Amino acid sequence: MGGSYGGYMTNWAIGHTNDFKAAITDRCVSNLVSMGGSSDFVQKEDSYWKGSFFGDIEKLWKDSPIAYFKNAKTPTLIIHSQKDYRLDVSQGFELFTALQRRGVPSKFLYFPDEGHWVLKPQNSQLWYQTVGDWCDRWTHTNAYAETK
User: Fold this and answer.
1) CATH no. for residue 21?
2) What pLDDT does 126 receive?
3) Which residues are catalytic?
4) Second label for 39, Cα 20 to 30 Å away, from 8, 88, 91, 131?
C-alpha cells in the first residue's frame, strides 16, 4: 500500500511481481508520459526531471509502472480524487482500465470533492472502511481452517 510516490511504488511492484495477495494504491502515478500533460508538478524544468519533462519519452515509458502490467494479477484497490492537481485522477483511471482489461480484480474509490489528501470527515471514514474491507477480503485468513 502506498500513496503519491508510494502509489507509484505500489504500481511498480504489481507490475513486476505477483507475490502479494493484494495492493492498495492511493493518489498514484501509473503513466509518466501522460502525467506530463496533467500534473502541476511537471510544469517547470528543474533538476528533478533533469530538464524538460518531455525530453526522453522512451525513458518515461520505461519508468512507467503501467508499461509492465501485461502479467499483473494482484487484486488492486485504486483510490483517487478529482481535485488532485499533483497527480491527476486520470492516472488512477488508466491503472483501473489496464487492470480491468487484464481481468485483474480491482476497485476504484473516487472522491470528486477531495484533492491530494482526503480531508473531509465523511470521506475519511469511507476511505478507512474501504481500505479495511479490501484488506479483509484479500488477505484475511481463517486460522481454524489452516490448522485442519
Assistant:
1) 3.40.50.1820
2) 98
3) 4, 116
4) 131
